[in-house]
Amino acid sequence: MGDVVKNIDNAFIYIIGISVVLLTGITFTMIFFTVKYRRSKNPEPADIRGNWKLELVWTIIPLLIALSMFYVGWNSYLGLRNVPKGAMEIDVLAMQFSWLFKYPGGRESANLLVVPEGKAVKLTVTSDDVIHSLYIPSFRVKIDAVKGMKTYAWFQAARAGNYDIFCAEYCGLDHSKMSAILRIVKMDEYRRWLEKKN
Amino acid sequence: MSQEPSYLEHTSSLQRRGILSWLLTTDHKRIALMYMWALMFWFTAAVFLGLTMRTELMKAGETLFGAETYNALFTLHGVIMVFLFIIPGIPAIFGNFFIPIQIGAKDVFFPRLNLLTWYLYILGGILAIVSLFVKGLPDTGWTFYVPFSIKTEREISLALIAVFILGMSSMLTGLNFITTIHRLRRREMGWFQIPLFTWSVYASSWVQLLATPIIAMTLLIVVFERFFGAGLFDPSRGGDPLLYQHLFWMYSHPAVYIMILPGMGIISEIFPVFSRKSIFGYKAIVAASMAIAVVGSLVWAHHMFVSGMSDTAILVFSLLTYLVAIPSAVKVFSWVSTMYRGSVQMSPPLLFGLCFVYLFSIGGLTGLVLGSAGTNVHVHDTQFVVAHFHFVMFGGAGFAFFGGLHYWWPKMFGRMYSFKRAYAGIFMLTAGFMLHYMPMFVLGMQGMPRRYYDYLPVYEPGNFLAGIGAYIMAAGIMVIFINLIISLKKGEQAPANPWGGVTLEWQIQSPPTVHNFTADPEIGEYPYDFTRLNKNREKEK
Amino acid sequence: MGTAAVSDSQGSRFGMWLFLYSEIMLFGALFILYAAYFLKYQSGFAAGGSELDLTLGTANTLILLTSSFAVASSLAAVQKGSMKLSGAFLLSAIVLGMVFLGIKYFEWSHKISAGIYPGSAAFKAADPAGHGRIIFYNLYFTMTGIHAVHVTIGLIVLMITFAFTASGRISRDNHALLENAGLYWHLVDILWIFIFPMLYLIA
Ligand code: HEM
Ligand SMILES: [Cu+2]
Question: Which of A20, B298, B330, C170 has its CA 20 to 30 A from that of B503?
Fold first, then answer.
């Protein structure tokens, strides 16, 4: 898979990893205090009302951690937005409850997106009615389809195979049936497919 | 202390009897109880709706019912849980009951307005029910996104008006609380002597007052669109659906802080009392509440990272989202440190508090995954989000609600409940909770979108586990409720101060008298000073 | 005991102010919409604005300002103890408010008879080039409509207040209601001062 997907997955690992450490720390401290200072063992509580140094520390350190997460996440997001030059362009029209893909040569296909292996693909997305959202989990790509607006997404069609496309924005009765297949094929197979009549 | 007639027996100054002494009461405590019963009804109803959905989802394919029913179910479940349970919940019950007492007042500042808000709440609920029988079940989800909500043929207008009225009810409650806290506080009580529960409801009341009108107007415009075809949000007539989303989240994001802040207030009361030790960093917690209220009002568009909004906006909103995480983290650290060298007594309220910290931390930390732009794109509008918001709204605000119920129950009703049954209920609820929602994080990462009644077979194991968890959870909730209800009949008499609390509500008898105080309360320099209580206890020995 | 009285006039004024904040936020949502669409459709807004009757709009602005002034004078009169004068001022404020609504009614019906209203046939048939003007008129009807509702509520409150002055329930030492009614009426006025240029003066 492309660098974009790897960067995003790294961002996931980074954020979730730190979160697990923090959660474990908080939970164990909490349980430890509950047991260690239980009333039967510690009938006389201390009178501690705060400690501004400690409070400052646990404000600033989380702030730094949060900012680093923001940075990692933002960087991985840029990959999703910067379409490489020479990407092939496909128009996507969403409607209740199907997807229509329009290829450069004028070929159209419904609920099936065929692209050649190894190419960067730019999808320009719009809707014919309500809001939908084009979601390709395998490529970490999602973008809303809004009537009267053109949005875009891109992905690197890395390895041949079939991938799922879902509608992620609730759009009515058959929202959960509004799926399509992304088929990545070898270049010559793609050419042959493109030439077949509609 | 001899027991005087409580607000439960005494039929207030108007001398009304029977049901009218409740329906026409202006006593903040009776209004709180009326809210409580109504809220319990809605909560139970919505739990059943949720359980029905989970049952359908346990197997791939259509099992019990189809898309139409499922869409109506999540709409109803969401609308009820958000607008009829969790937003009004803690303020309307515990705020009403305990804010006047914690500041040493006889009642709220506008007692009649207080009763009016209850009727608005009931009216909103009734309208929501009526809307079900007009033109088919509403099917937009609780977010009412345009243009779908303009186009759908189901009866949405009534549901929107219901939400409008409910918003007005909770906004006026907020107004009442702010005025009460400003005007009816005892003269001896300065701002930094106010208990943290009152502080946090105060902070959230401001958000309610200033943010609710925005959604009120927005929903009203959607109603206009439906009746007149005004076209303000309709792209085919030049409207911009993204503007709807901005306005919707300008309220609805702050609304999540309206939900969680009062809950945090309850937790801030529970930890000190059961550790017999002052809260760690009182001022930091107050500051954090206000910071959450302010910064939380500026992060709404993090719900819109894939909406087609500009990348600059995404940069700004992602950054602000990370900033609003800090005050919540500070609070978590403060609660845990409160136990350090305390004298910790395990009890149902504290166990709720501990579970709250754990579940709320998971909810908050997964919020970091959603706040980062790159990862948000993948998990936005998937089961990951559904898991995340159940962790914060249910594991957070919901658990705080239950914690508050167990903490203040003896005060409100003068009865003790069985600890054993309470522990059993909490254990089932928490275990079921984890089994229900943890798999949904995984499902979301695997790419299963939300609001799907049917899904690919790969997602079946996760959904099956979640279904089992949901049943365990619901059973836990039942045990908890039954235990509390039994206590009303069979529970032991509760003393005035069963836990050893130091805020004012523990200085008066359980249940309180109509005017709360029979003698002037003692207001300490510092609201969480346990030293005197501890010394007294020593003397008694 | 050390608590303040359960109800004091300072407190109810405080509550009134809070309520006014929330009203401002209510219109704030409309102003946000207006700003966003104005940036998108400047020429359409100018076209729509030029079709409104500036004379009537200006007249209405003056009427509401005068009415607001009358309420303020009514309060001043009460504070001096002259109940008759106060009642007269209040009554003239009410009459002026009604005139405002009358003119508004005239303007609306004029537009509606010309086929300009939300969801009209002409609006439904318009092509994208005409969208700006349509949005302008939709905002015009929404904003003036919701403002008119507020004027109506304000009038009802003023009438109740007037009845109370007449019956003597409002007096020199007890005029919190008049004060709060006045505050509300000023809000209605101020909102109009914002709405007026947005709609009538952008041409
Ligand atoms: C036993 C308890 C509960 C169960 C079984 C449950 C189950 C569910 C399920 C299955 C969904 C639909 C997910 C989807 O398909 O997208 C859902 C959505 C939702 N739940 Fe719950 N839930 C429970 C408690 C709660 C609580 C306590 C709250 C709030 C305090 C809550 C708030 C919501 C909201 C706001 C939605 C979104 C509705 C929408 O998509 O429009 N739930 N819940
Ligand atoms: Cu769709």
Answer: B330
